[in-house]
Design goal:
This is M14 family metallocarboxypeptidase. The chain is an alpha/beta fold. It has 10 helices and 10 strands. The radius of gyration is 19 Å and the shape is globular. About 45% of the residues are buried.
């Protein structure tokens, strides 16, 4: 498929108003019945045990220890119970900077999880000689298994990273970081932007909230989301330049924006992460970024998406340690 066809397809997905979402009444927020109807439409489509826990155990380097962070229990909804795992440097020194890597906040964003596992297997060991590392490779295991943005209660974990979060996926990640990495110097959160953001997830959100969908053209390529309170644009640019060697960087739309936000540097936008309850706002780290890979592009592949995530983490750590 030609790149121009992919660009045209993305534009259509972004600009064509979707049909009414099949659950709920337009203009009326969902109640319990609509949320239950939505949950009934979410089958398990892949295995967290096979695709996350097994490789996590198999590829754990000697320099790392596997942390048992409890269980995510959805059994009251007739759903599985998920063991929660994180990875921490076996040698932890207070005089070293600390790196936090998170993936799978949105379970459907596959390269965020698989890229984190790839980085663990290939790069964790050499970085552990210079920095403390805490890795949460899959924050939302039910979302991973159902290829979903939300949790079973139709809540977005990545708008609920705040004290007393109503979302258990966010709550366990917050507790894990507070316990095991109370001071963080670098946080990189691994995400994707997909065509289903416009074809499924934004229409579902609008239906849930009784609003109209807020659609933007899907960027074709990799980009970063900085924090408006601590943008560190030279840091963001260093990560973009490293990833540019692996896959293409998203270009702005006709208004000079990416998904509705002004581009601050090539491939870089910013959100107010703490105010929005985003995962990237959960620490006081100086260096913060969120990766966004576009796996639906005709110009990339699954392997390239995973590699882009790995390279982004390496570049971020490189800035932190002055490489």
């Amino acid at each position: 498929m030609l790149c121009a066809i992919a660009d045209h397809r993305s534009a259509l997905l972004s600009l064509t108003p979707p049909s009414p979402y099949p659950i709920g009444t337009p203009g009326t927020p969902w109640g319990a019945a609509e949320r239950a109807a939505w949950l009934a439409r979410q089958p398990l489509r892949r295995s967290y045990a096979d695709e996350v826990l097994a490789p996590l155990q198999a590829h754990l380097p000697p320099e790392a220890e596997l942390l048992d962070c409890g269980t995510l229990d959805h059994s009251a909804l007739g759903l599985p119970r998920y063991p929660l795992r994180a990875v921490r440097s076996k040698v932890w020194r207070d005089d070293r900077p600390t790196v936090l890597v998170t993936g799978g906040v949105h379970g459907y964003e596959t390269s965020g999880v698989q890229g984190a596992l790839r980085w663990l297997a290939q790069d964790f060991a050499r970085h552990a000689a210079q920095v403390n590392i805490l890795l949460l490779p899959c924050i939302s295991p039910w979302g991973y298994e159902t290829i979903n943005r939300w949790n079973p209660a139709a809540l977005d974990p990545n708008r609920n990273f705040r004290p007393d979060s109503p979302v258990p996926e966010a709550a366990w990640a917050l507790a894990c970081v507070a316990r095991h990495a109370p001071r963080v110097d670098l946080h990189i959160d691994l995400h994707e932007t997909t065509d289903t953001d416009n074809s499924e997830f934004e229409p579902a959100k609008a239906a849930r909230d009784g609003k109209q969908p807020d659609l933007h053209p899907i960027p074709d390529g990799f980009y970063l989301v900085a924090d408006t309170d601590r943008p560190e644009l030279d840091f963001q640019e260093a990560v973009i330049n490293a990833v540019r060697q692996v896959t293409h960087i998203a270009e702005p739309d006709d208004s000079g924006r990416l998904i509705g936000s002004p581009m601050l540097r090539p491939g870089v936008i910013a959100y107010a992460k703490r105010a929005l309850g985003l995962c990237g706002g959960m620490t006081g780290a100086r260096f913060v970024t969120t990766t966004e890979v576009y796996p639906d592009s005709a110009r990339t592949s699954v392997a390239e998406c995973n590699e882009a995530q790995r390279v982004a983490v390496n570049a971020a750590v490189g800035v932190l340690v002055g490489e």
